[in-house]
Each structure stands twice: as C-alpha cells, then as structure tokens.
Design goal:
The chain is of the alpha+beta class. It has helices at residues 14-31, 38-55, 60-70, 73-86, and strands at 33-37, 95-102, 109-115. It has four helices and three strands. The chain starts with 13 loop residues before the first helix and ends with a strand.
Length: 116
C-alpha cells in the first residue's frame, strides 16, 4: 500500500527521478513544449508549476530556489526573463498536457506538455 506517498515513482531511484525531472524542466524552459510519455508529463507538471510560481517574483531568494531545482544558470535566466511578465496575472495552470496516442515501438502513451 502506498498510503500518504505523494508523487509517481516511475520505476526509478530518487536520484534518477530527480535528474529526470530536472532535465525535463530545463528542456521545457528551452523549447516551450516537449514530447514525452504521459506518465512523465503528469509527474513533472506539478514540479514545473511550482517552479514558475517561484519565478513570478524576481528576487535573489527566488533565483536561488529556482537554481537549486534546475542546476542550470542559463535555464534559470531564461525562466526569469519570461515568467514574471507572462504569468504575473495568472494564478496557476501554466502548462497544458495534450495526449498524442501510443508510441509505435512499445505502445507507451505519449503526450505533449507545453507552456500556456
């Protein structure tokens, strides 16, 4: 039973999952939309929403918190250039997940996660 255990495990260790989320968030910042599996998109969406909420206020503390999640100064700079101006009047719902259908090789459900 997984009572009171939040989040998806994705058949990975904690370190591997953390690195996966970090890489997906960096790619989402760089490209504004990425194609991934539905499970990964649903798992990274709340993490990315929290990151944008942090980035809405451009302070040193917010930049340090974002940098601790991203580990990429370039991605952090990009995030703080578009997030405060694009999402200042929005109270959430910064991303959208669109289902694309099964992948040809293994039948995994694919999805497109993009910034709104």
């Amino acid at each position: 039973m997984r009572h009171r255990h939040a989040g998806k495990l994705l058949s990975r260790s904690y370190e591997h999952r953390k690195a996966l989320y970090r890489n997906l968030m960096i790619e989402l910042i760089d490209h504004r939309k990425i194609k991934t599996t539905l499970a990964k998109a649903k798992a990274v969406q709340p993490e990315f929403e929290r990151l944008i909420t942090i980035a809405r206020e451009d302070t040193n503390h917010a930049r340090r918190m974002a940098l601790s999640k991203l580990d990429s100064k370039e991605a952090m700079r990009k995030l703080f250039t578009f997030a405060p101006q694009d999402y200042s009047g929005r109270n959430g719902g910064y991303t959208r997940i669109t289902k694309l259908g099964p992948r040809l090789g293994d039948g995994a459900e694919m999805a497109l996660i993009e910034l709104v």
